[in-house]
Amino acid sequence: MDAHTVGITMGDPAGIGAEIIAKGYSKLRADDRVRPVVIGDAAVLRAAVENCGLADELAVVTVESVDRAPAETDAIPVLDLANVDCDAFEYGVVREDYGSASLEYVERAIELVQEGTIDAITTAPINKQATKLAGSEYAGHTGMLADYTDTDSYSMMLIEDDLRVTHVSTHVPLREACDLVTTESVLETIRVTDDALDELGVDEPTVGVAGLNPHASDGGVLGETEAREIEPAVDAARAEGIDARGPESPDTVYVAAARGAYDCVVSMYHDQGHIPIKMLGFSGGGRGGSGDGRDGNGESDADGDATVSGVNVTVGLPIIRTSVDHGTAFDIAGEGVASEHSLIQAVAVATDMAARRGAR
Amino acid sequence: MDAHTVGITMGDPAGIGAEIIAKGYSKLRADDRVRPVVIGDAAVLRAAVENCGLADELAVVTVESVDRAPAETDAIPVLDLANVDCDAFEYGVVREDYGSASLEYVERAIELVQEGTIDAITTAPINKQATKLAGSEYAGHTGMLADYTDTDSYSMMLIEDDLRVTHVSTHVPLREACDLVTTESVLETIRVTDDALDELGVDEPTVGVAGLNPHASDGGVLGETEAREIEPAVDAARAEGIDARGPESPDTVYVAAARGAYDCVVSMYHDQGHIPIKMLGFSGGGRGGSGDGRDGNGESDADGDATVSGVNVTVGLPIIRTSVDHGTAFDIAGEGVASEHSLIQAVAVATDMAARRGAR
């Protein structure tokens, strides 16, 4: 069995990125297939190990290149960009230098994955205000990754237990999101969703497509976007051999998907997809993440089966990129209380995808 | 303790209304405070009792007036409008005469509650296609009730376990819903929400107000509706002494409310409020309703506490009106398998509200 190298970008130094890596490292190494390497700052990572009370059992080793990452499981290998001034270090603050550091971690990771040195990227959270101060034009990781890889068609997929959602648009005002629902954009999102499900190991994927309007317009009474834009996209996708169905009523399609009717729901706008994912995460009993009150572990469901939850995958990219589903949690950074759950899950999904790409 | 008369309109004769009344009647009578009376068709109700295998234990008695409803708990009193032709009766079909009958039940119920003969109305589902065939201009019960009671400011409140939501708009296209988010409409919805929470017995209610755009516009980056329309409404509500808070990010405010941070979330459009309610209902383990796969009982949560779930309350009306949260379920009508849970909960909420109005 080949091991797959997953580059974990450390995220904003003032956030919880370093500590979720420290808390999660031994669990990550429990899976033989994963060879994680952190792209970040060794000093910040050492402080996190200390903060989490793990200094006796876990070391941090800097590596010159990913090929020289150590095999031991009690030392976190880090490609040390050493761009954080540790003498004046502080948690929980928006700083231009931290924004700049966060961006460099991601840039380096993209280079490494593009040159084939690493197999996938999992990103810890960055702070958008900080990266903006640092002069970044990107609203977050996703736009940056798409741009660096010359990708036009991509989508944010969120995974929580048995529910997966993708989005036709994300960070735009709702009125603009309505205008972005076109036959072309919906069809492209269905396509990248179907491809991604294949990469995630779903056999014969079924894609549910949400409507834009209440009750998917109730046959045209509540809007015309379904008939004019979404139905033609679903028809075109089906003509290409994709098992797409819809447009379905937005208020029932996510429940149907969570029950197993669809492997993913193509959502017409940010909150249509985010609200059901977060509600399911909540109902799952509080696990993963941080900074939003989650504090459980919840790696198994009630039946004891392993479930994937709290993972964000950018689908449609030529490279593999997964992410935690939470933010920098500045309010609790440095306390060692953030949950490593989402990170572990995100690395596991990246590893699965890398294994499948390798098998082709 | 006074008993409160709740008029239950039977809903579309071809749907599951009559059978959920038959199945639920003995449970309804377990609460001494409730004196239910059905406004519908005795023959259809008798057939439902038969279909549900309850003919040995439950009779149907027609009453001339609500005052003469019998005290026995083994006979369902029905104000028989006798407007269904039982010789050619059929389940699960859209028919003009059934639409017309459904409307008459509701009209009579409104008359009875306005003249003070009954204390509240709980409605079983009607079929909008059938009522349209019958010439009704209303999209459903709510508009009809508002019109008959000369009410301008009202909102659909959905209740599921610890989560309550109200809506600034419901059955309109999403683009139109965006335009309907004005300071005035949001403020009015906050007001009727706060009043309703008081009527529902919530002490010192806290009202969460959702934003319209992703992340409630992230400080204006993703839209201006929050700053221009929603914030002034929240400020005005607070100036009136209402504990309103927001605008909050739509993808987290419902989770926060389900955890207890808010007694109700004012939602900017139909699906924003409906999606989290239905996801919570799903996660609750399958209870109530019918026709959407629900078949549990779920009257208690994991701790054994009684919870309210699957109830729709029209707030802002001068009269008390609650409703089940499901449709006519034509696919299973007549089989006796529909769950009575939502009806029982809807009658219980109507009774609570009537008791509180009576106590003032």
Shape of chain A: elongated
What is the terminal separation of chain A in angstroms?
Answer: 14 Å
Low-confidence stretches of chain A: 285-306
- How many strands in all of chain A? 12
Show the largest interface.
A-B, 41 and 40 residues
Explained architecture:
The structure is a homodimer of 360-residue chains. The first copy, chain A, has 360 residues and is an alpha/beta fold. Helices cover 38% and strands 18% of the residues of chain A. Chain A has eleven helices and twelve strands. The first copy, chain A, has a twelve-stranded mixed beta sheet, sandwiched between helices. In chain A, a hairpin with a 5-residue loop joins strand 11 and strand 12. Chain A is elongated. In chain A, 58% of the residues are buried. About 6% of the residues of chain A have low confidence. The interface between A and B is large, with 41 and 40 residues.
Q: How is the topology of this model organized?
A:
2 copies of one chain form a homodimer.
Chain A: E1 4-9, H1 17-29, E2 34-40, H2 42-51, E3 59-62, E4 75-80, H3 96-114, E5 120-123, H4 128-133, H5 141-148, E6 155-160, E7 163-167, H6 174-179, H7 183-199, E8 206-210, H8 225-239, E9 243-248, H9 250-258, E10 264-267, H10 270-283, E11 309-315, E12 321-324, H11 341-359
Parallel strand pairs in A: 1-2, 1-5, 2-4, 3-4, 5-12, 7-10, 8-9, 8-10
Antiparallel strand pairs in A: 6-7, 6-11, 11-12
Task: Name the descriptors.
elongated, 11 helices, 360 residues, 38% helix, twelve-stranded mixed β-sheet, homodimer, alpha/beta
